[in-house]
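Running low. Invent one:
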Amino acid sequence: MPAGGDRAPRSPRATAQDEMFRNMAAVSACIATAVVVFNPMDCWRIRWQVQRSHSTMRGHLSAILRQEGLMRGLWLPGVGCNAVGAALSRGIGMGCYPTVRDYIVGPDGQKGGGAMFLAGLISGGVGYGLSTPLWQLKTILQAGVETKGGLYRNGLHGLRSILQTSGIRGLYRGMSALVVRGALMNAGNTLGYDFTKTLARRRGWAEEGRGLHVTASVVSAFLSSTFSVPADVVMTRYQSAKLMGRTYTGVVDCAKTIAREEGLRGVFRGWTPLFTRVAPVYVLFLPAYEQVRKVFGLDYME
């Protein structure tokens, strides 16, 4: 042991792992908080995608607020599963992102848009794949409020019921669509946020700070929504098929059915409520995340 009881310096590998876990903790804490705050927008998005009785989003939202109220109709459904699922999926997806990106770039390379997108795609796919059961339960709970045919009282009841009737395999129903959707959403997040920050600093357009963080958050929300909404629609329809009285042979069949019956408009159905939900979450989550990184002994994300 070193003289004076001093601890030996950590290896670069240990330091990198420590930074990754700190980053994951910062991401998880911030995204879970933001998701709880904005759960009404997410619940409305899911309910809009599965409903068939209203021709406009405004009329649909008005009916929910008038008949059920904000808390019962939009805020409470699926909020627990949403928060835990976000903490896990984004904790991995964005928490591991800098490490994966730097590995792709290599020690002597310069990060660019391709590396940012690919790193976000990989880490996002892993994060959303592992958290599939939570997202499935969240979707079913929120869609069930709309169809008035809710299968489960809450997330724990849903977890036990699925395990009893379908086993572990049932918990991962629709995983392929979720992994694609989550990977694309996370890639849009990392590309939009990291690329905007990097470009602005390189060109001298803005310095690191809250203004740049908010601007990058909006770009990130736009790309996340645009990249992921087709897979989001397929995932929602497939996971809530029983509630809607539909039967699909698989995720691909669900996607083909939507495209055939509703066209491009159906594939991108829900982009507006998705962006409306994602943008404020990101504007709260990402600038807060940059500050919380300091609490965990890290600098701004590079």
Observations:
- The longest helix spans residues 210-239.
